[in-house]
Design a protein that fits this description.
- This protein is of the alpha+beta class and 133 residues long.
- The chain has 4 helices and 8 strands, in the order αβαβββαββββα.
- The strands form 2 sheets. A 6-stranded mixed beta sheet has the order 1-2-3-4-5-8, with helices on both faces. Strands 6-7 form a two-stranded antiparallel ribbon.
- Strand 3 and strand 4 form a beta hairpin.
- The radius of gyration is 14 Å and the shape is globular.
Length: 133
């Protein structure tokens, strides 16, 4: 995950952190407040959360690159592999370009990205070329 998110957002990004399933209410509050501030700042940022459903364990990341592009990044693996702590975990990846983001007071998904279009191939190509977005 780091090999994609960090090059995309750059070194001088606002890093609000990552909300794990085991995070405390205080961690949730701190990350949510940071995310709101980062969005309002107009700077590059990154933050995300971990979650699971009946089929997949997944991590969702919201990232704004230094050029202002807003990205939705999702990393996921079958829930049985996640729960069995299979190492190294092989995950699948999906990227979308979005036009807007809102923060919600919901631990299981504290941000919502809107008007998104598939962009996995273009993101991977730009990261491979070293342009980051």
């Amino acid at each position: 995950m780091r090999e994609i998110v960090q090059p995309l957002t750059g070194e001088s990004t606002v890093d609000c952190g990552f909300l794990a399933l085991s995070a405390s209410d205080r961690d949730f509050y701190d990350i949510m407040v940071c995310a709101r501030s980062a969005i309002a700042s107009g700077k590059a940022y990154r933050f995300g959360y971990q979650n699971a459903d009946n089929f997949f364990g997944y991590c969702k990341v919201a990232a704004r690159s230094p050029d202002g592009k807003l990205w939705s990044l999702e990393f996921y693996a079958p829930i049985d592999k996640v729960m069995d702590k299979v190492e190294p975990l092989q995950y699948s990846f999906n990227a979308k370009r979005c036009s807007n983001i809102t923060i919600q007071n919901n631990r299981r998904g504290f941000f919502y990205l809107q008007s998104c279009t598939e962009a996995t191939d273009s993101l991977m190509q730009s990261l491979h070329e070293g342009t980051g977005g």
